[in-house]
């Protein structure tokens, strides 16, 4: 899965990008309390472990 697809999934769930340093983007949700950091360039493939961790932090796994 590409980083761009992960970011689209977060945005579809109302996550907003609040900061970026280099290739690391931080997202915050207006209701959920956690922040999620998405590493890598938009065109990169994201490792499966990182993908699962992002979904867990964003409470999107299901």
UniProtKB/TrEMBL annotation:
<dbReference type="GO" id="GO:0003729">
    <property type="term" value="F:mRNA binding"/>
</dbReference>
<dbReference type="GO" id="GO:0016787">
    <property type="term" value="F:hydrolase activity"/>
</dbReference>
<keyword id="KW-1277">Toxin-antitoxin system</keyword>
<keyword id="KW-0540">Nuclease</keyword>
<dbReference type="Pfam" id="PF07927">
    <property type="entry name" value="HicA_toxin"/>
</dbReference>
<dbReference type="InterPro" id="IPR012933">
    <property type="entry name" value="HicA_mRNA_interferase"/>
</dbReference>
<dbReference type="InterPro" id="IPR038570">
    <property type="entry name" value="HicA_sf"/>
</dbReference>
<keyword id="KW-0255">Endonuclease</keyword>
<keyword id="KW-0378">Hydrolase</keyword>
<comment type="similarity">
    <text>Belongs to the HicA mRNA interferase family.</text>
</comment>
<keyword id="KW-0694">RNA-binding</keyword>
<protein>
    <recommendedName>
        <fullName>YcfA family protein</fullName>
    </recommendedName>
</protein>
<dbReference type="GO" id="GO:0004519">
    <property type="term" value="F:endonuclease activity"/>
</dbReference>
<keyword id="KW-0346">Stress response</keyword>
């Amino acid at each position: 899965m590409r980083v761009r697809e992960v970011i689209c999934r977060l945005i579809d769930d109302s996550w907003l990008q609040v900061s970026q340093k280099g290739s690391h983007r931080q997202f915050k949700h207006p209701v959920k309390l956690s922040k999620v950091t998405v590493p890598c360039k938009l065109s990169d493939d994201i490792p499966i472990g990182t993908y699962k961790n992002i979904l867990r932090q964003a409470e999107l796994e299901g």
